[in-house]
Amino acid sequence: MNKVMLIEDHTSFRQTLAFVLNNEPDFEVVAEAASISEAHSIIAREGSGIDLAVVDLDLPDGEGTEIIPVLRAANPNFAALVLTASLDREDLARAVEAGAAGILHKSADLDDILTAIRSVASGGRLLSSNEIVEMLRLASRTRERERDARRAADQLTPRELDVLEALANGLSNKQIAERLYISLETERTHIMNIMTKLGAHSRLQALLFCLRYGIVDLD
Amino acid sequence: MDGRYGGEDSREWRLRALIVEDFEDDALLLLRELRNGGYSPDFERVDTHEAMSAALEHRTWDVVLCDHSMPKFSSTAALQLLRESGFPDLPFIIVSGRIGEDAAVAAMKSGAQDYIMKDNLTRLNSAIERELREAEGRRERRRAEENLLRSERSLSAAQRIARLGNFDYHPGSDAAVWSDELFRICGLDPQKFVPTYRSFLHLAHPEDRGIVRNAVREALYGASENAVEYRIVRPSGEARTVQTAYEAHRDSEGNDIRLTGTIQEITERKKAEEARRLAEEKYRSIFENAIEGIFQSTVEGELVTANPALARMAGYESPEEMLREIPVIEDRLYEDPSRRRELYEIMRHNGSVSGFEARMRRADDSLMWASFSIQSILNASGALIGFEGTVEDVTERKNAEANLREMRESERRRIARDLHDEALQDLTYALQAMRVMNRFGGSGDEISGNGPPLDGLVEALDRAVGGLRTAVYDLRLEEDERRSFVESVERLIEFHSNIAPECSVKLFVFGDGDRLSDKLSTTARRDLLRIIQEALVNVRRHSEASHATIRLGLDGERVGVEVSDNGLGLDPRAKPGMGLTGMRERASALGGKIKVNSDSGLGTTVLFEANVYSLPREDHAP
Hints:
Strand order of the largest sheet of chain A: 2-1-3-6-7
Shape of chain A: elongated
Distance between the termini of chain B: 112 Å
Order of helices and strands of chain A: EHEHEEEHEHEHHHHHH
Mean pLDDT of chain B: 84
Strand content of chain A: 5-15%
Distance between the termini of chain A: 45 Å
Mean pLDDT of chain A: 85
Largest sheet of chain B: 5 strands, parallel
Strand content of chain B: 15-25%
Structural class of chain A: alpha/beta
Number of helices of chain A: 10
Oligomer: heterodimer
Number of strands of chain A: 7
Radius of gyration of chain B: 55 Å
Structural class of chain B: alpha+beta
């Protein structure tokens, strides 16, 4: 009997999946989590007892893949299947890198899902080694780009971050200058420096860059 | 003529003599006398008007020897015939038996050169010799006079044609000699006008008299030549511009001075020069003050001419600096030199190009987008010798376009994310739930402990439909072209009311607002609708307003769109997200401006304004 954990924030979907698995003779859903933090606390309680996890990627407080190493640390025989609605190859690559034995789309047929879970539970892999290598390469490229972005962002001074944040708030040049008590000229210099550091050709591009890499927040 | 009587030289001199004489004996006497004198006479004797006329016509004569009175002829008639026949210089000597004093004087007066008595022929030869010599002199004088006359005539013609007169002025006596043309130039009658220093000075334009005074003074105090330009006023009041060039001639002591020179009328030339100068100035002014860059280059790509706008655009201090710093356009200016070669190929095939865009490198290595309109320069035989054209800095427009692309890209990403996070999750759930129900039968009550799953399904599908509708609306906004602009705005309002029924929206259309559809290209229309949509999203999400108003207006050239609400107003520390930034980017891509007025508690007003003619006219790819 494989002890299964479901990590999925869509409650109805999670319950449906649990129902299906519990109806199979070789599976028992022993834990359900709707977020990363909930998953952590459950693992802290009974981590070593989990053989298999079905993990969603997009969770309200992070990416489901970060749970995989934690579960593996608790149980060396642990295997994970990522069930996602995403088609983004970068997301999938990150999942492979985190140690997912298989990835499946959420809309897949129930029988396919069960077959996949069974195969993963018995130590199999759903991806060919070629696919895995490619995914790992893609993941490392993505990570590299993010590292570059992070490095670029690290060069930003606190004042420049203030300017960016004001920019994200939709303020005009003049309003930014007023809010930060600087001259328009200084504001323009800041923007120029930001654009140079981030390799952006416009204010907007600089802003989108920062939003993409979480350098400034919108909400 | 020397040696005619020289003893050593016994050679006889041939003399062609026309003898007008009725007595043959008298003629023979004359001939003998001539032979005695060393002449070898070649003669003909006539004694009538007709015979003499024929003789004059047929042969050339050195002398006419004529009897005074004959039965059918007379020396007076013969002399008259001779002069009328066009021989003014042919010597005419009367040889007569008896002639009265009065007749002799009358003959001499009417032009006979001499008279000889038949009974004293010894004077004949010396008279002939003298007359031949004098006739020769007369001929030469006449020739000289004719030459002089001819050259005077041609000088006068030349002066008339060149509108150039000459003068010779003697300051010592204040006397001047003027050519006819000079009088004509000044509009004066040579018979009435006496040229003196004073009278000429008076002729000069009052404002230019100083020039004339100075010129004369300089000549008197040392200048040997000079040229000045000034105006004269004719008696008719008409002003003419003249150019005077003169030389000063001094005697050996340097005291007595004469000024000779020319005065040429150059009024027309001055006018033409002035017109050319004005035209050049005008061209210069356009060239210097144009906002567009203007250039000329050789076929090989050497920059030949640049105006200040071009230099400024390219980041140089001056056109001179630009020409100095850029020997070859291709190497220095083009970010991608192959673009210049591409341009060259287009020019070679089409002869001109407009709106060719390329990235150029400025003096400080920064990059700019330039839009070129270029024409070929051909020489007289039609060969390509260079290019000329205008350059516009379109960096801002290009950046705005790029920003807009980024905006649209990020919008698409947002829509995709919304679909993924909500609609897709709900739909996959619904799908799997239905599969489960299908497999296990029944209503699926077993699936969940909390409530019938059918309710969850309905909820999920309802949410998914809502999400899809929003996404479809967002995506389709740009294709909604068959509607008028006002109708499209009404659809936006309807959509808003469906989502947020607690906030009512009213639309007012001002001026020619109904006709906005005619004025908006697809691009402009889309971006304007987006601005309104973003404003409504802000109203919905942040304002908590119960009422919002949209005003659309077209007043002459001004397009105005205003979205106002009675909500909370923007908290200066609140974060309205990308909405405002997006609106700003769109507004600037439309060539307009967004103004946001907000007071805490008094609502928010978003006003977009633009000039109709600055809206993007052509549709570019989104």
